[in-house]
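Predict the 3D structure for this chain.
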Amino acid sequence: MTHFDSNIDVKKLGKVAVLMGGASAEREVSLMSGSGVLQALRSRGVDAHAFDPAQSDLGDLKRDGYARCFIALHGRHGEDGTVQGALELLGIPYTGPGVMPSSIAMDKIMTKRIWRFEGLPTPDWRLVSSADETVQALQALGIPMIVKPSREGSTIGLTKVTSPEQCAQAYALASRYDPEVLCEQFIEGDETTCPVLGEGAGAHALPVIRIVAPEGNYDYQNKYFTDVTQYHCPSGLPEAEEREIQRLVVAAFRALGCRGWGRADIMIRASDRQPFLLEINTSPGMTGHSLVPMSARAAGISYEDLCLGLLANAALDTSPGTLGA
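Done. Predicted structure below.
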């Protein structure tokens, strides 16, 4: 397992902005993530400051002399390539994947299309634009079926549909968050997640986490605000299954061209133990309930070292000075 270098010269990192809050539906969680990151970086002597794009203009980052950014934003305008593009224009290196992988990963349908093309297993799906099409999707995909916005996170706007009568309400809820609504085949079995650190050939998976939620309901409330969900890390899965999940998430990460870090969600079908990729987060949570820090701890990486290592690896898609060369 590759550990982050704990001998990072924090002075060379310069003035650091922890981007947190923002205007997405996940603002509350982002503020919790950002606060944790800010505290961790400061504890290691980093000149780190909170920066909320919902309250300050991103142009202020340049004016105020920030040398790099730790992106602790979630959802729209945080992990969808837009803030990454702004930082590219400002020439300020940032944590996590670049513009295109961030944009693609935020769009679950585009992500699934690429994974399917690359031969990676992901549940069957339909893109729908009405309640009637949602009923047709249920007939095609079977019961139960997941209905969710294509470009949201944290299970916001998600419904597990178990009858045709629920389709209209499920579509209405998902379409409140995104005009693109994804209907996805439900995979019955173990719910797992696995982080990836690094880039390209150097990308590697951390230990798998197995999630056991009350009645299988791993929703927004149970993700962030209750202590009833159980997280098993070590996962308790057979070693061969753990290795296969790690292989899959690294392949999924590379297929989208990600760098820095990410966390992929995988269901293991109970009937035949086949793993299926659901989605990948390119700006994972860093709250007290978050899963990347938990997995990192199991690999011997402290929360503080994780934050510092991610920050030290902050980068740009385009090296400064190459534009217009």
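The chain has eleven helices and 13 strands.
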